[in-house]
Amino acid sequence: MTYMADSEMSAASASVAAVAREVEEFVSAAGWNQPPQLFALVPTAELLSQQPDLADRLDAAAPLTPVAQEALPDGDLAEVLGRIAWPEAVRGCALAQEIVVLPPDAEAELPEAGGSEADAQRLRQAAADHPRRTEARLVAVVLREGTAACVMRLRGTGADDVEEIVEHPELAPNLVTALRATLEP
To answer: Using an 8 Å Cβ cutoff, are 177 and 81 in contact?
Structure first.
């Protein structure tokens, strides 16, 4: 693993957070009810050197550019991510997915989580049907050297509701760990 000075770490964190916001805004432009989307993060300079015709569509000053990948196959997202490996040219990756968020006290109202797929499906359905649920879009971004960022857009429930944006690198620790695993040699 590469170690970075504090100033380098804060610059990398800011850069990764900017990529997370960029991915969320890109996905958000297509609206809600989308399947999970995966992005490779590639150095902008390298991408422009290989494809100069993209110069008018990319920010040449951005260190990384997210590149949308083909649609993910159906199935358990953890299993799908477990089968992904990136070439060295990819410096990081991002995943955008829609989730259901419940208030902390609502967990007691959900069925017991067992180890079977049927139990997991029953738990997901109970969360989706919960009267106090909030739909959200979560974007997690991870770089090879370990820097991560997460952005979550909470969906408004009415025409006048403003959608809230929450940013924190530890919003989705399990997803960050799964994305890091895709970048390991």
So the answer is: no
Is this model's pTM higher than 0.70 or not? yes
Residue-level length of the chain: 185
Name 110's Cβ contacts closer than 8 Å, sequence gap at least 6: 102, 123, 126, 127, 130
Quote the percentage of the chain above a pLDDT of 90.
Answer: 58
CA pair distance 107, 85, nearest whole angstrom:
34
Q: Report d(CA 36, CA 114) in Å as an integer.
A: 24
Closest CA to 92 of 157, 27, 23, 29: 23
Q: Residue 17 has what pLDDT?
A: 94
Q: Is 117 exposed, middle or buried (0-12, 13-18, 19+ CB in 10 A)?
A: exposed
pLDDT exceeds 60 at position 5: no
**How many CA atoms within 13 Å lie on the side-chain side of 37?**
21
What are the pLDDT digits (tens) for 91-147?
999 999 999 887 777 777 766 766 666 666 676 666 676 777 788 999 999 999 999
Q: Residue 32 phi/psi, 5° resolution?
A: -95, 175
Which DSSP helix (H) or strand (E) runs through 119?
Answer: helix 117-129
State the number of CA atoms in the 13 A half-sphere of 35 facing the CB: 11
